[in-house]
Amino acid sequence: MTSARLRLSRAVLGTVLISVFGLGLGVAPVQADKLDDQKSQIDKQVENGKEDLEDLNTTLAEAGAKLKKYQDALPAAQRKLTDAQGRVSAAQGQVSVLQKKLSTARASKAKLDAERESTQEEQQQSSQMAGKIAAQAYRQGGVGGNLSMLLSSGGDASDLAGSIEMASRALQSQNQALASLRQKGAEEGNAAARLKSVEEDIASLKKEADAALATQKTARDDAQSAKDEVDKILADTASAQTTLKGKVTSAKKQLDQQKSEQASINQQIKERQERLKREAEERARKAAEEAKKKRAAAAAAAKKKAANAARLAREADKAERAAGVEKENSTPSSEAPSQSSWGLIIPSTGGYISSPYGWRPTPAGTIDYFGTGGYVHAGQDWGYGGQCGAPIKAAAAGKVEYAGSKSTHGIIVSLDHKIVKGRALTTNYNHMSRVAVNVGQRVKQGQTIGYVGSTGNSTGCHLHFETIVDGSYMDPMKLLR
């Protein structure tokens, strides 16, 4: 094939490739924007989930403190209940003893009342007998008068002896009646004194029993209050434990949902890139077929129009360069290329590398969300020695996908760079003090998009720079070297 024909074939091929790729690229951005919108929406949901997780951490801490408070208070309440129950038992024993004493005293009083009543009847009978004797003696002039009368009568000695014996018996009977009367009177006095003592004992025991009953009631009330307190502590503890378990279950479910959503969007981005690659390859194949046909036609035309060949050759050189760029962009890349391939620049102005990409312990003063003591640091940090406000530059030209606050990331800007080397590229700039761009705005490489700050989960002024390739985080230094 002659040089003119070769240049002609390249020109036709380049023209066809430009035509085909131009038509295809007119549709792809619309589809990409739709998926990017979905990604942005899911990212917001994930951020909201992180905020909920922060709230949950606070709630779990509060529930744990409340549970510990209940558990600490339980032993004291149980001791209080045991003490109150012991006082109830002691009061019941005292009441029982006093009631027995009171019953015994009342029985003694009843016995004394009966004995006193019997003594009063006997005393009354003795008093009546003594009265009769006294009346008879009065009527007969007394015992001495009777004796004088017997001596002066001059009767028989045997009659006199009999009369004296009768008088002696009468006197003895009178003395016995008087002695019995005095004894009954003394017994009556003793019974009255004993009865008074028993009545005083009964009054004292009743007073003590009433006081013991009051003490028993107070002890029972204290015991019931202590029991109610223990029951409430147990109920509150059970409630706190149930709430705590529910929160833990909810947290696990939320984390699982976030992982599922993240996997879903990553899969969609991967499928989008594969589709774009297939479409680019298909366009290239069709363009090659069309170019082959055009080459044949051009070769035939070249024989007839030599003058036109030179012009077509010049166009072929230009089209060849355009076709070569498109072909290179449609070729998948298995590894992150060097700086010259990705075309990124370092986004920081000044500063020093303070923390690289990869696993690191949780910094002091920040939140350990998963309790693992560390996490995968998904970006590259540049520190500024505590000084905020340095400009942050766009690492590459792109479209502002997000500009604002995102929970633990603080104030961020997210740039979508579409397809670079056949792979989707997004860059994030976190912890800014403020942004300098708006969502939807297209920025140039090196343009100021915000300023260094320490917002979100941060311990000092720094730039946290992330590179996301096909939906997965990649070490930024591999793209910047």
TrEMBL record:
UniProt keyword annotation of Coiled coil present: yes
Superkingdom of origin organism: Bacteria
Low complexity compositional bias, start-end: 297-311, 330-341
GO MF annotations, alphabetized: metalloendopeptidase activity
Gene3D superfamilies: 1.20.5.340, Glucose Permease (Domain IIA)
Keyword DNA-binding (UniProt): no
A Pfam family of this chain: Peptidase_M23
Matches recorded under SUPFAM superfamilies: Duplicated hybrid motif (SSF51261), Tropomyosin (SSF57997)
InterPro entries membership: Cell_wall_metabolism_enzyme (IPR050570), Dup_hybrid_motif (IPR011055), M23ase_b-sheet_dom (IPR016047)
CDD domains linked to this entry: M23_peptidase
Keyword list, A-Z: Coiled coil, Signal
Ranges where the M23ase beta-sheet core domain occurs: 377-476
Residue numbers spanned by region Disordered: 108-132, 252-342
Compositional bias (Basic and acidic residues): 110-119, 269-292, 312-329
Coiled coil regions in record: 164-215
Protein name: Peptidase M23
